[in-house]
Amino acid sequence: MESGCIRIQQQISDLLLGREVPSAESIERIPLVHNSPKHREELYRLLFELHSDSIHITASNDNNIFRLRSNLIDATLITQITDEGELNRLQVKPEVPRIQSLSDFVSALEKLHASVEIAMMSEKSNKTIVHSDTPLAVASLVKVVVASIIIRQIERGQLKLNQKHIINASDISILSAGLSMKNIGTAITVKELLLLMLFFSDNSAMDILIKIGGEGFQEYFQTMMNASLTKSTKVSPRIKPTKEIYGAAWGSLSVEQTKKIRERSLTEIRWVDGLDYFIPLTIVNKAAYSLIHSNIYKNIFDLRRDFFKGGSAPGVISALVAPFNEEIEKPVISFALNRRSSFSLVEEIYVFDSVRKLFENEEYLSSEVNINN
């Protein structure tokens, strides 16, 4: 068994240190505890992202622990291998500073040298507390807005939760996390589409909900935007399908192109060309607030846990957190970071670990931030 452990340690080391390029063949040779196409795809993506030129990797003497550095962010990568010589886990742990306030959180994000915007909403106010000079791309945070409008249409009797849609080929988007060509011809309900969109960030589910919502959906989105923006702010009056936005960014869907599209979507910066979703965070927060306070939403989803939605694309990281507490009304907080170079996997994990640290410390509720960048 020991020789098996040494062999897999060497395989992982070769892939991480650039002695071998991650490929389907190299991943297939690694014995996994959870041996399925899904887990092999996840391992391939992880090793592909760690193989980035922006991440410098050094190994310990036993090849079990690796030191990572990406720009200003340091991290550790730990391999967990069973006694039977099977890979159980690869874990990236960035070094996150102490975060006890929103100011600490802002300081942590500033290490990434990106444009930053942070907004907070509570019963008393809805404001941007850290501003960007230009509108920022928010990636999958758009799905929070889509969900809030669909829930509103259900409340008004324009849609029903159990309403069914027959999936056709044109419904399948690129980079879809749930629905695929295998689902063509099957029926799916609005409730199932909401679950797929919010918890799996499924692009096809979002596109279908936009289609089902029809012109009433787009008209209400335009009303939301007009109520919150000045005349000088330039934004799209419609939410376009992900297939249209991301297809223009990284390529049209085909079975042969799926892998290439996924790799391009991890490296090619396209938000600078307007190929993303540009929605002010105050509108995203308002959508989230109305969503989690809706009786329909409460009946569908488990509110015993915090509501979290993240988004990412090359050069874009975004997230929204609405903490759940039966006794204390905690604010909804969202943020977006944009820059003209890709965020590495190490940097992305660093950001979300910083978010977790912020919300683990309740002192942030009474902290003040007066920073504009």
Automatic annotation (TrEMBL):
Q: Where is the Beta-lactamase class A catalytic domain?
A: 128-238
State the InterPro entries in the record. Beta-lactam/transpept-like (IPR012338), Beta-lactam_cat (IPR045155), Beta-lactam_class-A (IPR000871)
> What GO biological process, any one, is recorded here?
beta-lactam antibiotic catabolic process
Q: Which Pfam families match?
A: Beta-lactamase2
Name one molecular function that GO assigns to this entry: beta-lactamase activity
SUPFAM superfamilies this protein is in? beta-lactamase/transpeptidase-like
Record Gene3D superfamilies: DD-peptidase/beta-lactamase superfamily
What is the protein named?
Beta-lactamase
Please give the organism.
Bifidobacterium longum subsp. infantis
